[in-house]
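Colleagues,

Please find the record for the two-part complex below.
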Amino acid sequence: MNTKILMTGNEAIGEAAVRAGCDFYAGYPITPQNELTAYMAKRMPQEGRIFIQAESELAAISMLMGASASGKRVMTTSSSPGISLKQEGISYLAGAELPALIVNIMRGGPGLGNIAPSQSDYFQATKGGGHGDYHCIVLAPSSVQEGYDLVFLGFELADKYRLPTIILGDGMLGQMMEALELSAFSSQPSAGKKPWALTGCKARKPNIVKSFYMHEGGLEEFNKKLQKRYRQIEKQEQRFENSHLDDSDIVLVAYGSMARIARSAVDALRKKGKKAGLIRPVTLWPFPFDIFDNLLRKKKKIKFFVTEMSYGQMLEDVRLAVNGRAPVDFFGRSGGGIPTVEEILEKI
Amino acid sequence: MKKIFARPMSLRDIDTHYCAGCGHGIVHRLVCEIIDELDIREKTIAVCPVGCAVIAYDYWDFDCCEAAHGRAMAVATGIKRVQPDKFVFTYQGDGDLAAIGTAETVHTANRGENISVVFINNAVYGMTGGQMAPTTLVSQKTTTTPLGRNAAREGHPLRVCELLSGLASVAYLERTALDSSGAVIKTKKALKNAFLNQLQGKGFSLVEILSPCPTCWGKSPEESLRWVKEEMTKVFPLGRYK
């Protein structure tokens, strides 16, 4: 039987990484994810893995690049301002087709902002973040257990598609304690599955890991290859949770911690006899466009209500998904404010 | 007939993209000669910089990794920590190592990472067309110091060996030059020391090589060698720093 224990989201993500076979972790202190870095400092050496406290986020993400280029499973974690610094390396990882897991326990911005939970890095995570034409897979857990589970999925998807994958949590999820069911250690991917890795050119031609394409047409050709992969991911990897969609007139859309509050709002509306439902995107990229499409094909009279700890970032993707076929309303707060059930009910 | 001179096995037989009189070609070759001599080609992983040597992997016939500008030592740290049995070196210029990558340089050295660093100091940004480097000499003209580097405004040349020599975790620091055949032989010896240190687990080793850049200095290859010897070594004294 699997053990059930009480853990914070930060610690759960750390333990999941250890159990998912993370070989290398580099991080830099930043609130509200410090427990995660400290957890890795303790756990990684216990398992004979590598932990480094880097001199900066710039260095941490480049250390990941080296360890990932070596064919290893790698993770870094940070919070919003630190993730901004990591965008340099994330773009290089995307350009060099290197898998990595990057955890953002979001805090308030812009600038130094504050250390309160926030969801204002949605644009940065889902629309590229760094320079160039690329995407990261973005996974949004809404509970400690899901944060744990998505680490395993995140590593798998990063390896499968050879790209950086982001877990987009927030300070509430990172700091909150919940019951967690631990799973067994999963086997590490064998080096044979990464023939591109830099392991020394013994009995093979040298490998080069790079994102630089100077010859004419080279970069365009490479970008077309990436885009083809992104289209495949968009088709195959959309994930979401929903409730009451069959008989809903109004569908709330929220992700991460905010979805828990939205769920309470849906329950409250149902108690009042209102036909409310919920769509909770789990993958923010690829955004689960198909569920909106399917719903709008079946139901002519429906409206959507998006709620976020931002002033409307995921809202733009919901509007794209709905594409003018139904009304889309919004309520959000950011900078430390968290929309409450009462506020949501009042706005609907 | 006995063969007494040949291209190192680790050096590919391709045309060079470097300018006439540039020092990179010499150091690329020295690196390959040593790798052949130590028979470590199959366990070598190089980290190439952003700068003129960005495509060093086109010349080198062993595994190579790209790094963002200034981050070569962080990438090397990641590689070496997960593969301590491999030979890992970075090859970086002055802008990369001593301006945008200064933090990585100081902290990689201070952690005593068991890697080797080949540092080409030619007192200028070559690839971007000759801007002021952290190592540009006072009164040296560059595209961004058209009247010459002014110490009052732009400071003095950054001396990397001197800077790192105070760090307890550093194993080996030496500054050499490429201004004569004898100097090239000394450079090779220093590089070999740095490479052997890593193989023997001694820790962080760096060789700073004063190298000519005739194109960005606006000098002939011959004048450039003289300038290395007569001007650069005054500011950057040669020798062992640690």
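Residues 181-199 of chain B form the longest helix (19 residues).

Comments are welcome before we finalize the supplementary table.
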